[in-house]
């Protein structure tokens, strides 16, 4: 008779789930996404002010990564030095996830 127990070797997470948590779990990404979800498009200096414990170098790195992942887009304006960061449709789709995280935090922390 074969055992019905699941061993650690048998268990594996869905690669899509792992990828999502790899992105969301990276330090500062959740806070950057939260600011963009709540405040809309932001200039770099405004994001840096909102996520004030993150160095500018790391913020640039995180924004580039979130852009590469299709969650954030860097918007430039013709004939202007203005650059804004805003969520893409994929980034906006994280709204219910972030709301659930808030509910968890309100309840447990």
TrEMBL record:
Keyword Ion transport: no
HTH hxlR-type domain segment(s): 14-109
UniProt xrefs under Pfam families: HxlR (PF01638)
Keywords assigned by UniProt, alphabetized: DNA-binding, Transcription, Transcription regulation
PROSITE patterns from the UniProt entry: HTH_HXLR
Residues in the signal sequence: none
Transmembrane segments: none
One example GO MF annotation: DNA binding
InterPro entries referenced in this protein's UniProt entry, alphabetically: HTH_HxlR, WH-like_DNA-bd_sf, WH_DNA-bd_sf
Keyword Transcription: yes
Protein name: HTH hxlR-type domain-containing protein
Source organism of the structure: Pediococcus argentinicus
């Amino acid at each position: 008779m074969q055992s019905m127990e699941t061993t650690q070797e048998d268990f594996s997470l869905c690669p899509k789930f792992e990828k999502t948590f790899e992105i969301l779990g990276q330090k500062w990404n959740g806070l950057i996404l939260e600011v963009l979800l709540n405040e809309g498009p932001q200039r770099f200096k405004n994001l840096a002010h909102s996520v004030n414990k993150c160095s500018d170098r790391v913020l640039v790195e995180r924004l580039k990564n979130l852009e590469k992942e299709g969650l954030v887009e860097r918007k430039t304006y013709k004939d202007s030095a203005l650059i804004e960061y805003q969520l893409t449709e994929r980034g906006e789709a994280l709204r219910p996830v972030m709301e659930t995280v808030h509910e968890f935090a309100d309840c447990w922390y």
